[in-house]
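The protein record quoted in full:

***
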Amino acid sequence: MGTHKENGQDDQFIEELWKRSGGENPLGEFDSFQAAYDAAVERGETGHHQRASAIVTCIDEGITPLIVQQQLNLPEEPDILRTAGSGILHGDITHILRPPQVQGMLAHDWCGAAGVYARENNLTGNADDHGAQRIEQIAQATEVDYYGRILPTARPREFHDARAVYYDGTRKGFEASRISTLPKGFGVSRGFFGSQIGESDAALATFIAASGNMRSPHFTPQSPFYLVAISDDRPGSVPMEKLRDELSNIRKSAESMGFPTQIVTLDVSVTRGGTSTPSPIRRNPRAS
């Protein structure tokens, strides 16, 4: 992933990308991630997984269930589980990726994790090719479908415009990109893959943001990169405090690089607003 000048882009494009992602206030009219989520729930939106099985894909913010559906020509949006490079950085994970929870695996182009995989294994040539080959091998070993490669078209090529990493500790699974009021972000299925993989993936997402095109002068203590801990009240979901503790390690590393981050929590329990007694919607006075 090069800089905007290396990619033949100018500063104006970066400015436009920053503005489209929300500028200094990615939450718009809301003063917190919780308020933004509660407003979407009141409108009938949901990020909770709805199906018994899911497709494993990358943490990349350019991938959404709708894009997977469209590019694979599926009859409906699938649920997706997210880990960096669909798992190629984590050794043997076949014991995790078993049906019926997992129905298949998916690779994508412009994959930063594939670049890491290629470097770690001293592979030359196209990193996306090497990553896709490894994902197909994992799928075969796990006896689930391999769906090939897609383009992460929810972001520009070679540019990451994520404003957050969504650290999903729910047991059932939660997809933040399905919530229209939340800023665009990387996704990590911590509840499914466990703490070791989850922390590694969240750290990689933060590093990509910290070394990316929009790092400076855009991310500041007033407009930080958000580390969003997500949990709910279902049995088996990771407690919010544990998620915060795990993310605190990543925040410390980011601070050592001079990259401003902020840990926030998002309670997606189905008993929250949008049911019998909606929680009040807090508007951001800066957005008025």
Remarks:
- Helices lie at 11-20, 33-42, 65-72, 112-120, 127-142, 190-193, 195-210, 240-256.
- Residues 67-157 form one domain.
- The two ends are 37 Å apart (CA to CA).
- The longest strand covers residues 102-108.
